[in-house]
Structure formats: structure tokens, C-alpha cells
Amino acid sequence: MKKYITIILAIITLPALGADNNPMFGKNADNAIALYVSQGTGPGSLFKLVDPFLWEFEPMTNLMVQYSQPASIFRLPSRINLAFVQNFGYGHDRGLSFMAVGVSWDVALVQWRGFYIGAGLGPYMRDSRDRYVQSRLVFGERFFIGKNIGDAWRIEFFTQHFSNGDFTEINRGFNFTGLAVNYSF
């Protein structure tokens, strides 16, 4: 337990990082637009995100357009996001299509030589209920690995989970894996 407390305190006490040091944005950039494209990797818990051996590819494609601004959380570089989501279920999963809008906060936990690793969390409001999640309010959790490919451009590999935190009896959740392209200005 002492190890975990030490690690958390070390992260919190890192020197302050300004917007110029935020790996998710170009130098002096105050805005970013990103396009996320992902494939459904099956229903299930948040823990399914980090273990590719548990993924079950499903007939669902998720598109998300996201607007971001730089911020910091506990002195770590982060971004505040406004996202518009469209999930396309096809085949036998046609009834799992939904649109959503949400806000989220992503934080870059590690950055090294143009690469960054991070996590994000935020609430989303969907336009429908379905057999996977019985509520319109869902929470989106995301893990990502990004790479700066120019001053204004970034690419990210990510996994994302949408569920309602067991607020309703039916909460199988949605899991996705995909790529994002981010342009900062």
C-alpha cells in the first residue's frame, strides 16, 4: 500500500506543465479537433479494454468527432473535450445504434520523445436505450497511446468503454478499439 501512495504522491507533485508542454497539442495551440474511428470489441466490463485476448469483434462501428482545449489536472497535461458520437450497429446488432454527446477529461500520464500514454473519463447522453445499456446516461472511459507526427498533428490508438456504472439492471456496456487523428491549432 505504501508503494501506491508513494507513486500517487510522486505524480501529484510533478512540476507544473503549461499548455506549451502538453503532448496532446502543438506548440502554443489552444484548440484541437479529432476524429475517432473504432470497431466494437464486445460487451463487458471496463477491464476488457486492456486485455486484447478478451476482445470479441462485433458488427459495430463508432465514429466520434471531438473538440478539445488544453488544461492540467494535478499538474499533469490534460485536455477538456466536447464529443459527438455516432455508433452504427449492423447485421444482428442493428438495434445497438445510438447518437450521443458528452464532455470528458483526458490526462497524459506519461510522455516521452513525442509519445504519450493517457486515460480519460466523462459523462455522455445518448438518444436511446437498448439491450446492452438500459439508460441514456452513460460514462465513457478511455485509454490511449498517442504520437506527435508534426507540430499540429497527432495520432492515437485507443480503447473506450461506455456503460452506466450499474445504475440500471441491464448494463452490459460497449467496448471499442480504434485510431484517432488529432489536429491542433
From TrEMBL:
An example Gene Ontology molecular-function term:
hydrolase activity
Range of residues in the leader sequence: 1-18
Name it.
Acyloxyacyl hydrolase
Keywords per UniProt: Hydrolase, Signal
Which InterPro entries does the UniProt entry name for this protein? Answer: Lipid-A_deacylase-rel
